[in-house]
Amino acid sequence: MTIKILLVEDQKLMRIGLKSLFDEQPEMEIIAEAENGKEAVEKARLTKPDIVLMDIGLPDFSGIEATKKILEGNSFDTKVVILTSHCTEEEVYDSMTAGANGYILKDINTEFLMVIIKTIRKGAMWLDPKVVPFIKDRHSGIIPARQLSRANFRQTHSNLTRREYEVLKLVVDGQTNSEIAKTLTISEHTAKAHVCNIIQKLVVDDRTQAAVKALKEGLV
User: Fold this and answer.
1) Model confidence over 3-32: pLDDT tens digits?
2) Does 143 map to a domain?
3) Which candidate among 26, 81, 187, 218 keeps its CA 20 to 30 Å from the CA of 6?
């Protein structure tokens, strides 16, 4: 089933770029676009998208306020995903409090962006690793603790080694085997072996499914 997306972004070039990106995804479709908060709220209620991809810095009122308005009385199960270059503690916290299901920074790997959107559509929540510390510091129940708990990870998947856990986090970040090798100062062959072990231990078919499972179960 095609995931219907409302794209909310005030910069025209960014909208064009994102639309071009999603045009290449057979399982996703941009069904409407908005360049300000008021238009976003109106089009969300009119088109009933599965996902609203929401920028924060909009010309009339913020994407956070638009998120609140869209999700008020939301009877069609729309999920709001913040996609922004903004990265302050208040913005992250307020976005989550408003009901957003994801907070993604615009420097994300495009392939992984698609994985995250599919995962969120199924009911998961995702935070960019760079903003997780903000929520940890101010955690007040808006995000289930299991999604932030490394202890829970060790209890649930104790058969993964510490190194495999480090590799899994990099897989979730969208890194290739070559990039993982450079990040951890290991050989590409060793990185590939770790990824293969993770795939086997998590009982999935490939690295994309491993990333999805890690996100859905709050492993990273």
Assistant:
1) 999 999 999 999 999 999 999 999 999 999
2) no
3) 218
